[in-house]
Amino acid sequence: MADDFTVMITGCDSGLGREFARSYARDGWHVVATYRDHANRIPDAEGGDRMSHAQLDVTQFRQFEALKQHFGGRPIDILISNAGIGLDWRKFGDVDYDYFRRMFEVNTVGPMKLAETFVDNVAASRLKRIAIVSSRMGSIGCNLTGGHYGYRASKAGVNAVLRSLAVDLVPRGVRVVGLHPGWARTAEPEAPVAVEESVEGMRRIIARLSAHDTGQFYNYDGAPLPW
Q1: Residue 77 covered by a domain
Q2: Helix (H) or strand (E) segment spanning residue 54
Q3: Would residue 25 count as lying in a domain?
Q4: Pairing of strands 129-133, 175-180
Q5: 36 inside domain
Q6: Which of 6, 24, 88, 146 could form a disulfide bond with 30, CB atoms 3.0-4.6 angstroms apart?
Protein backbone atom coordinates (compact mmCIF):
# COMPACT_ATOMS: atom_id res chain seq x y z
CA MET A 1 0.00 0.00 0.00
CA ALA A 2 1.27 3.48 -0.89
CA ASP A 3 0.42 4.78 2.57
CA ASP A 4 3.06 2.49 4.03
CA PHE A 5 5.87 4.02 1.93
CA THR A 6 7.98 7.12 2.47
CA VAL A 7 9.67 9.30 -0.15
CA MET A 8 12.14 12.12 0.59
CA ILE A 9 12.64 14.75 -2.13
CA THR A 10 15.12 17.61 -2.30
CA GLY A 11 14.51 20.91 -4.08
CA CYS A 12 10.75 21.19 -3.54
CA ASP A 13 10.85 25.00 -3.69
CA SER A 14 9.54 24.93 -7.26
CA GLY A 15 9.31 22.98 -10.50
CA LEU A 16 9.97 19.26 -10.63
CA GLY A 17 10.61 18.80 -6.91
CA ARG A 18 7.36 20.49 -6.03
CA GLU A 19 5.42 18.33 -8.47
CA PHE A 20 7.15 15.15 -7.24
CA ALA A 21 6.04 15.98 -3.70
CA ARG A 22 2.46 16.81 -4.64
CA SER A 23 2.16 13.79 -6.92
CA TYR A 24 3.34 11.28 -4.31
CA ALA A 25 1.15 12.96 -1.65
CA ARG A 26 -1.92 12.65 -3.89
CA ASP A 27 -1.21 8.93 -4.12
CA GLY A 28 -1.11 8.54 -0.36
CA TRP A 29 2.65 8.34 0.27
CA HIS A 30 4.35 9.78 3.33
CA VAL A 31 6.28 12.67 1.73
CA VAL A 32 9.28 14.47 3.23
CA ALA A 33 9.66 17.63 1.14
CA THR A 34 12.86 19.63 1.59
CA TYR A 35 13.49 23.21 0.57
CA ARG A 36 16.45 25.51 0.15
CA ASP A 37 14.16 28.21 1.53
CA HIS A 38 11.56 26.90 3.96
CA ALA A 39 9.36 29.89 3.13
CA ASN A 40 8.59 28.11 -0.17
CA ARG A 41 6.94 25.15 1.56
CA ILE A 42 3.95 23.58 -0.14
CA PRO A 43 0.70 24.76 1.47
CA ASP A 44 -1.09 22.24 3.67
CA ALA A 45 -4.10 22.41 1.34
CA GLU A 46 -1.92 20.90 -1.42
CA GLY A 47 0.27 18.55 0.60
CA GLY A 48 -2.19 17.25 3.13
CA ASP A 49 -1.39 15.70 6.48
CA ARG A 50 0.92 13.05 4.99
CA MET A 51 3.53 15.63 3.94
CA SER A 52 6.23 16.97 6.23
CA HIS A 53 8.61 19.82 5.42
CA ALA A 54 12.29 20.45 6.16
CA GLN A 55 15.01 22.99 5.47
CA LEU A 56 17.83 21.61 3.33
CA ASP A 57 20.25 23.66 1.30
CA VAL A 58 22.32 20.88 -0.28
CA THR A 59 25.49 22.96 -0.04
CA GLN A 60 25.18 23.26 3.75
CA PHE A 61 26.42 20.06 5.35
CA ARG A 62 25.27 21.07 8.83
CA GLN A 63 21.71 21.06 7.53
CA PHE A 64 22.15 17.48 6.33
CA GLU A 65 23.29 16.43 9.77
CA ALA A 66 20.45 18.28 11.49
CA LEU A 67 17.88 16.64 9.23
CA LYS A 68 19.41 13.22 9.76
CA GLN A 69 19.32 13.68 13.52
CA HIS A 70 15.69 14.79 13.34
CA PHE A 71 14.71 11.94 11.00
CA GLY A 72 16.51 9.25 12.97
CA GLY A 73 16.30 5.71 11.68
CA ARG A 74 12.95 5.97 9.93
CA PRO A 75 13.04 4.04 6.62
CA ILE A 76 13.02 5.97 3.34
CA ASP A 77 11.69 3.83 0.49
CA ILE A 78 12.62 6.30 -2.25
CA LEU A 79 15.23 9.06 -1.95
CA ILE A 80 14.96 11.57 -4.81
CA SER A 81 17.87 13.94 -5.37
CA ASN A 82 16.22 16.70 -7.37
CA ALA A 83 17.79 19.94 -6.12
CA GLY A 84 19.90 21.56 -8.83
CA ILE A 85 20.79 24.82 -10.53
CA GLY A 86 20.49 25.53 -14.21
CA LEU A 87 22.28 26.25 -17.40
CA ASP A 88 25.24 28.57 -17.75
CA TRP A 89 24.81 30.68 -20.86
CA ARG A 90 28.20 32.39 -21.01
CA LYS A 91 30.55 31.25 -23.80
CA PHE A 92 34.07 29.87 -23.92
CA GLY A 93 36.46 32.66 -23.02
CA ASP A 94 33.91 34.32 -20.74
CA VAL A 95 33.24 31.62 -18.15
CA ASP A 96 31.85 32.63 -14.76
CA TYR A 97 34.04 30.44 -12.57
CA ASP A 98 32.23 31.30 -9.34
CA TYR A 99 29.02 29.95 -10.86
CA PHE A 100 30.97 27.00 -12.31
CA ARG A 101 32.02 26.02 -8.78
CA ARG A 102 28.53 26.64 -7.45
CA MET A 103 27.06 24.21 -9.99
CA PHE A 104 29.42 21.48 -8.81
CA GLU A 105 28.52 22.14 -5.18
CA VAL A 106 24.79 21.84 -5.89
CA ASN A 107 24.57 19.42 -8.82
CA THR A 108 27.37 16.98 -8.00
CA VAL A 109 28.49 17.22 -4.36
CA GLY A 110 24.96 17.74 -3.01
CA PRO A 111 23.55 14.42 -4.35
CA MET A 112 26.61 12.55 -3.06
CA LYS A 113 26.19 14.00 0.43
CA LEU A 114 22.46 13.22 0.33
CA ALA A 115 23.14 9.56 -0.49
CA GLU A 116 25.81 9.21 2.21
CA THR A 117 23.61 10.85 4.82
CA PHE A 118 20.47 8.77 4.24
CA VAL A 119 21.74 5.47 2.80
CA ASP A 120 21.03 3.62 6.05
CA ASN A 121 17.43 4.85 5.96
CA VAL A 122 17.05 3.69 2.36
CA ALA A 123 18.65 0.32 3.08
CA ALA A 124 16.23 -0.16 6.00
CA SER A 125 13.19 0.30 3.76
CA ARG A 126 11.28 -2.17 1.62
CA LEU A 127 11.77 -0.49 -1.77
CA LYS A 128 15.40 0.64 -1.34
CA ARG A 129 15.61 3.12 -4.23
CA ILE A 130 17.66 6.25 -4.93
CA ALA A 131 16.78 8.39 -7.95
CA ILE A 132 19.01 11.25 -9.08
CA VAL A 133 17.58 13.87 -11.42
CA SER A 134 20.44 14.49 -13.83
CA SER A 135 20.30 15.84 -17.38
CA ARG A 136 20.94 14.73 -20.93
CA MET A 137 23.30 17.72 -20.98
CA GLY A 138 25.61 15.62 -18.82
CA SER A 139 25.84 12.88 -21.43
CA ILE A 140 29.21 13.03 -23.16
CA GLY A 141 27.89 10.84 -25.96
CA CYS A 142 24.98 13.20 -26.64
CA ASN A 143 27.05 16.40 -26.68
CA LEU A 144 27.08 17.61 -30.28
CA THR A 145 26.64 21.35 -29.67
CA GLY A 146 29.28 22.24 -27.03
CA GLY A 147 29.00 25.11 -24.59
CA HIS A 148 27.39 25.06 -21.13
CA TYR A 149 30.70 23.97 -19.64
CA GLY A 150 29.88 24.11 -15.97
CA TYR A 151 26.40 22.63 -16.25
CA ARG A 152 27.49 19.79 -18.52
CA ALA A 153 30.47 19.01 -16.30
CA SER A 154 28.44 19.06 -13.08
CA LYS A 155 25.82 16.72 -14.53
CA ALA A 156 28.45 14.40 -16.03
CA GLY A 157 29.98 14.38 -12.56
CA VAL A 158 26.75 13.35 -10.86
CA ASN A 159 26.30 10.64 -13.49
CA ALA A 160 29.67 9.24 -12.41
CA VAL A 161 28.56 9.49 -8.78
CA LEU A 162 25.33 7.59 -9.36
CA ARG A 163 27.09 4.89 -11.35
CA SER A 164 29.55 4.28 -8.51
CA LEU A 165 26.76 4.38 -5.94
CA ALA A 166 24.90 1.70 -7.89
CA VAL A 167 27.96 -0.57 -7.80
CA ASP A 168 28.84 0.08 -4.16
CA LEU A 169 25.27 -0.35 -2.86
CA VAL A 170 24.48 -3.65 -4.59
CA PRO A 171 25.39 -5.63 -1.42
CA ARG A 172 22.79 -3.61 0.51
CA GLY A 173 20.08 -4.18 -2.10
CA VAL A 174 19.80 -0.46 -2.92
CA ARG A 175 18.99 0.41 -6.53
CA VAL A 176 20.20 3.70 -8.00
CA VAL A 177 19.04 5.35 -11.22
CA GLY A 178 19.75 8.57 -13.13
CA LEU A 179 16.86 10.44 -14.75
CA HIS A 180 16.65 13.10 -17.45
CA PRO A 181 13.41 15.07 -16.95
CA GLY A 182 13.30 16.37 -20.52
CA TRP A 183 13.03 20.05 -21.33
CA ALA A 184 10.22 20.64 -18.86
CA ARG A 185 8.30 23.86 -18.35
CA THR A 186 9.85 24.66 -14.97
CA ALA A 187 10.92 28.20 -15.87
CA GLU A 188 10.65 28.52 -19.66
CA PRO A 189 7.08 28.54 -20.99
CA GLU A 190 8.24 27.48 -24.48
CA ALA A 191 9.60 24.15 -23.18
CA PRO A 192 7.77 21.21 -24.80
CA VAL A 193 7.26 18.95 -21.77
CA ALA A 194 4.74 19.70 -19.03
CA VAL A 195 6.13 19.34 -15.52
CA GLU A 196 3.35 16.88 -14.68
CA GLU A 197 4.21 14.71 -17.71
CA SER A 198 7.91 14.70 -16.80
CA VAL A 199 7.29 13.72 -13.19
CA GLU A 200 4.76 11.06 -14.14
CA GLY A 201 7.29 9.50 -16.51
CA MET A 202 10.11 9.58 -13.97
CA ARG A 203 7.85 8.05 -11.34
CA ARG A 204 7.07 5.16 -13.67
CA ILE A 205 10.80 4.48 -14.10
CA ILE A 206 11.42 4.61 -10.35
CA ALA A 207 8.47 2.31 -9.69
CA ARG A 208 9.65 -0.35 -12.11
CA LEU A 209 13.32 -0.43 -11.03
CA SER A 210 14.81 -3.88 -11.03
CA ALA A 211 18.32 -5.13 -10.36
CA HIS A 212 18.92 -4.85 -14.11
CA ASP A 213 18.13 -1.11 -14.04
CA THR A 214 20.45 -0.08 -11.23
CA GLY A 215 23.20 2.26 -12.39
CA GLN A 216 21.39 3.15 -15.61
CA PHE A 217 20.46 6.54 -17.08
CA TYR A 218 16.98 7.06 -18.54
CA ASN A 219 14.98 9.75 -20.28
CA TYR A 220 11.70 10.54 -18.55
CA ASP A 221 9.86 8.51 -21.22
CA GLY A 222 11.88 5.40 -20.33
CA ALA A 223 14.37 5.52 -23.22
CA PRO A 224 17.95 4.67 -22.13
CA LEU A 225 20.54 7.43 -22.55
CA PRO A 226 24.26 7.08 -23.31
CA TRP A 227 26.84 8.29 -20.81
Answers
A1: yes
A2: strand 51-55
A3: yes
A4: parallel
A5: yes
A6: 6
